[in-house]
Amino acid sequence: MKISMQADLPLRDLVFNTLRQAILTGELKPGERLMEIHLADKLGVSRTPIREAIHKLELEGLVTMIPRHGAAVSQITEKSMSDVLEVRRALDALCAELACDRITEGELEALREACAAFEQRVAEGDARKIAQADVALHGIIVQATGNQRLIQLVNNLSEQMYRYRFEYIKDTSQHQTLVDEHRIIYESIVGKDKETAAAAARTHIDNQKKAIIRRIRLDRAEEDGGKGV
Question: What is the Cα–Cα distance from 73 to 62, expressed in whole angstroms?
Fold first, then answer.
């Protein structure tokens, strides 16, 4: 983990972005304690920006303060994941429907290229790049709605979604399913088939939810087994 330098950003924001990205991608794992001194040494900064970053991450729900133990990365729970995906499922279906009516030729071409780029990233096998390509693909559909309030709502959820999406993308057994679902969504939008596009968007989220729940339960069983339960 290292600070990614970005022009014009104060140090506290650079530290916050670095820790946030580490949590979203799983570099800092659920339940892992966030020791200010250790993180300050690792990032080469004082404890003050670390403390400020941890506070902001707590407000976002990515960090939990545990009495007498300090800060830790929030666990990925079925409830928190279900709450986010439930809302995103409805919004994605609406975005797909609106895109069928409003997408421009230029955006259709960009969406076609995004699907191809996603498949290329899947072939390469880098989970971080796959996740980035997935975000870019869905971003085109969202922008194609032309509805600024809807775009804002989806963008606000996207950051929370990324953590769950990354868990899903790390499961290589699901990669072909993702490719197939993207193709169906794309072809439905090209054909202006709103019903199929919305249904495919909902299925896309449903499959993520099922896979992530399996992962959560497996991790819990392994943790309980390790404790001799």
Answer: 6
